[in-house]
Every structure is written in structure tokens, then in C-alpha cells.
UniProtKB/TrEMBL annotation:
One of its GO terms (molecular function) is mRNA binding. It comes from the Eukaryota. It comes from Bactrocera dorsalis. This is THO complex subunit 5. InterPro entries: THO_Thoc5 (IPR019163).
Length: 279
């Protein structure tokens, strides 16, 4: 800030010096122009008085006696013509120089004005960008990050830790949390894809086994019909047992547990019971 103030002070001094030089130049030019105008006016007045004197001499009776004086007046008038011509040339030169200086100053003023307008546009642009920055809303504000308390429990997982966990500022700490969240989500996404692939594989296996078991049904029905005389002879009602097992699957959980326990006792021959399902 001190350097900026010093530069501004130097710039202000240079501007003041340039303004002072311009004022001196204007005063000098105005003074010279005023002197030339006064000189030209005096020369015209002197030339007029000489013309009047010469006219009086010619109208007087003693013109021959005053021939030398008349010649001197003519010479002096000729010199005044030369001087008036020179002053006129200087006035024209001064006017042309003044026009050139005026044009040069107009160009400089237009350039400074254009530069000032560019600076104003740039200032307005920067102000607008600053307003946009103040109104900026990051998309990560809607992301639910892992709480900082839970992050301490994940320190042992090196795959989720940033490479450099030094003491960070607020913004750097937020970036570290976002990086941790990104790594965690990548790992969870990989696990989800793996589980989905496993689920699809299991689903395909289930479909294949279901189709395989379904293909056994006609053969089993044919086998049951063919072995029914043998079942009657051996008194092994397999068809009735299968129908009973299908009904047992429809029982509520308490009745299902009671049936299974009684059926297990019957198979173990610890008691002679007959378990049937009615309904």
C-alpha cells in the first residue's frame, strides 16, 4: 500500500508538472500572439500616418523641395510593408501551430477519455464478477459428507485417507473431506457393482435349477402312478405323505413347529402318535 501511495504521489507530481508546463506554454504562446497583434496594429497605424503625410506632401506646393523627405517616407513605408508581411507570416504560422497543438491535445484528450472508459468498463466488469462470486453456490453444498466425528474412526483405513493430512485451513479441510467422500463413494460403488453381479449370478442359478426341477414333474407323476400298486402292497402311502407335506408348508409358524416336533418324535419311535393336517 505504501508503494502504491508513493507511485500515486509520483504520478500526481508528474501530472502537476505537465499541467504547469502546459500553462507556461499557453501563456508564452498567448503573449507572443498578443505582441505580434500589437506590433501589426502599430505598423498599420504607422503606415496609415505615412500615407497621410505623403498625401499632404504631394498636395502641397513645395513638393520638389521636400523630395528627399518624400523618398525617405516611401522607403520607410516599404520597410513597414516588409515588416507587416513578416508579422502576417508569423501570425499564420502561429495559427497553424496552434491548430496542430489543438488537434494534438484533442487526440490526447480522446485517448485519455477512451482509456478512462476502458478502466470504468473493467471496474464494472470486476464488480459484476465479484457479485457473481458472492452469489456463487457450490454443488457440493447439497452433498451429505461424513461427519467429522465419524472421520476419526476411519483413520485406520489408508485407502480413504488423503495423502497429506497436515493441519489445514477451512477451505483446504473442506477439500480434504470432499476427497475422502469421493474415495469412500468409489469404494462403495465398486462393492455395489460386485454385489449386483453376484445377485445376477445367483438369480441365473435359481432360474436354471427351477427349470431343471420343473422338468422332473411329469416324470415323477408318471413314476408315482406306476408305483401305486407297489405302495399299496407295501402299505407305504408316499402320495399321501407328499400331499401332507404340501399342506404343512401352509401352516402358521407355531403350528408348523408343533407338527415338526411331533413328526420327529414319531420318526424316532419314542411315542405312537398320528399327526394329520385338517383344513
Amino acid at each position: 500500500s505504501k508503494t502504491l501511495q508513493f507511485c500515486c504521489a509520483i504520478t500526481g507530481c508528474q501530472t502537476n508538472i505537465l499541467v504547469y508546463i502546459d500553462i507556461l506554454y499557453f501563456i508564452k504562446t498567448s503573449f507572443i500572439t498578443s505582441i505580434m497583434a500589437d506590433s501589426l496594429h502599430k505598423n498599420f497605424e504607422t503606415l496609415r500616418s505615412i500615407f497621410e503625410e505623403v498625401l499632404k506632401m504631394k498636395n502641397s506646393t513645395g513638393e520638389r523641395d521636400r523630395a528627399d523627405e518624400l523618398t525617405e517616407k516611401r522607403k520607410y513605408a516599404s520597410l513597414l510593408f516588409v515588416l507587416i508581411k513578416k508579422v502576417n507570416r508569423m501570425v499564420k504560422y502561429s495559427l497553424r501551430s496552434g491548430r496542430e497543438d489543438l488537434h494534438r491535445e484533442k487526440v490526447r484528450v480522446d485517448s485519455n477519455r477512451l482509456h478512462l472508459q476502458n478502466l470504468l468498463y473493467e471496474v464494472n466488469h470486476l464488480k459484476r464478477e465479484i457479485r457473481y462470486c458472492h452469489k456463487f453456490k457450490s454443488q457440493d453444498e447439497d452433498i451429505e459428507l461424513v461427519p467429522e466425528d465419524d472421520e476419526a474412526q476411519m483413520d485406520d483405513d489408508k485407502t480413504l485417507m488423503p495423502t497429506d493430512m497436515t493441519p489445514l485451513s477451512g477451505h483446504a479441510k473442506h477439500l480434504a473431506r470432499l476427497e475422502r467422500e469421493l474415495n469412500l463413494r468409489k469404494q462403495l460403488s465398486a462393492q455395489c457393482k460386485e454385489l449386483l453381479n453376484t445377485k445376477q449370478q445367483v438369480f441365473r442359478d435359481i432360474i436354471l435349477k427351477t427349470e431343471k426341477l420343473t422338468s422332473f414333474a411329469p416324470s415323477l407323476r408318471t413314476l408315482l402312478k406306476a408305483t401305486r400298486p407297489l405302495q399299496d402292497a407295501l402299505q407305504v402311502p408316499m402320495d399321501r405323505e407328499w400331499k401332507l407335506q404340501q399342506l404343512v408348508q401352509l401352516l402358521p409358524q407355531p403350528l408348523y413347529l408343533a407338527y415338526m416336533n411331533l413328526h420327529a418324535l414319531k420318526l424316532a419311535k419314542e411315542c405312537d402318535v398320528c399327526v394329520i393336517v385338517v383344513g
